[in-house]
Design brief:
Layout (H helix, E strand, L loop, with lengths): L15 E5 L4 H12 L3 E6 L2 H14 L4 E6 L5 H10 L7 E4 L17 H23 L5 E5 L22 H25 L5 E5 L8 H9 L2 H13 L4 H4 L1 H8 L8 E3 L11 E2 L9 H15 L9
Parallel strand pairs: 1-2, 1-4, 2-3, 4-5, 5-6, 6-7
Antiparallel strand pairs: 7-8
Helix pairs in contact: 1-2, 3-4, 4-5, 4-10, 5-10, 6-7
Pfam families: adh_short
Keywords: Oxidoreductase
InterPro entries: SDR_fam
């Protein structure tokens, strides 16, 4: 995978992908590159107008690309169920769980969950489970890819306090949600192996990539100095979103991807560069922790992965 770039993406003709949060940042790049290589791509976006603008930009940058927009608000499980029920694709080969929020002030989802855990993990857990039959029907080559973060190393999932009632700390909440992403992929991979399913579950992180994720929370709160600080960091230290999307694209398309793989830019490059198999915290490979989070997630979302045995 040394020096792997978007030009190395295999032909995706005949494949269909759903990319959450595809209207901007890494999700936009991921959707564009998949479409450029021939995939039919569904842009699953909370804001339909911004999704439509993104679709126009993709068509302009990748002539002949097939993209369409479908509304999806991961902070509302009713919206997740509606999206899955109305999914019109004949097949589904790729589900890219990309959308996320970072370091928000304390907020709640429509269902009462802490926002970062609710959007980054629970929304995607429910979406994957509801779309699982389509993914399993697709046969060999089908994949689920969840986008985590190297910041997962700063926080473990605490099943006794998922909503952080004991004291909310925004960066800890973000780190926990990103650990949850990896635990989810770990447990999903274990269950897929147990049923000999062709579907592969993998994860990726973008390293330090310049996107609007870093500035969203400061802008929301009117913290102009912090917003400016993040903008300077993005400008002078972060890699481009095109580069940051490569680990996700590798996990979604490269032929050598295995169950529970985790890709990101190299640590020695300070989280810059082409994708490699990445380091992850030991607790994200814990079977007991994975089973525990899975059970809690099923209870909270009401979504059960009936096609997979435990």
């Amino acid at each position: 995978m040394k020096g792997w770039t978007a030009s190395d993406i295999p032909d995706q003709t005949g494949r269909t992908a759903v990319v959450t949060g595809a209207n901007s940042g890494l999700g936009f790049i991921t959707a564009r590159e998949l479409a450029r290589r021939g995939a039919q791509v569904v842009l699953a976006c909370r804001d339909e107008a911004r999704g439509a603008e993104a679709a126009q930009r993709i068509r302009a940058q990748a002539p002949g690309a097939y993209v369409r927009v479908a509304p999806l608000d991961l902070a509302d499980l009713k919206s997740v169920r509606t999206f899955a029920a109305e999914y019109q694709g004949d097949r589904l080969d790729l589900l890219i769980n990309n959308a996320g929020v970072m370091a928000l002030p304390r907020r709640r989802t429509a269902d009462g969950f802490e926002m970062q855990f609710g959007v980054n993990h629970l929304g995607h857990f429910a979406l994957t489970g509801l779309l699982l039959p389509k993914l399993l029907e697709a046969g060999p080559g089908a994949r689920v890819v969840s986008v985590s973060s190297f910041m997962h190393m700063l926080g473990t999932v605490d099943p006794r306090d998922l909503n952080m009632e004991r004291g909310y700390r925004r960066w800890t909440a973000y780190a926990r949600s990103k650990s949850a992403n990896l635990l989810f992929i770990h447990e999903l991979s274990r269950r897929l192996r147990a049923t000999n399913a062709h579907l592969v579950a993998a994860a990726a992180h973008p390293g330090y990539a310049s996107t609007n994720l870093q500035t969203a929370a400061p802008k929301l709160e009117g913290r102009r100095a912090t917003e400016r600080f993040m903008e300077i960091g993005n400008r002078y230290f972060a890699q481009s979103p095109d580069q940051g999307a490569l680990p996700t694209l590798y996990a979604a398309t490269a032929p050598d991807v295995r169950q529970n793989d985790f890709f990101g830019p190299p640590l020695q490059g300070l989280w810059h560069g082409s994708p490699v198999r990445s380091t992850r915290a030991k607790w994200t490979r814990s079977d007991p922790a994975g089973r525990g989070l899975w059970a809690v997630s099923e209870r909270l979302t009401g979504v059960r992965y009936e096609a997979l045995t435990s």
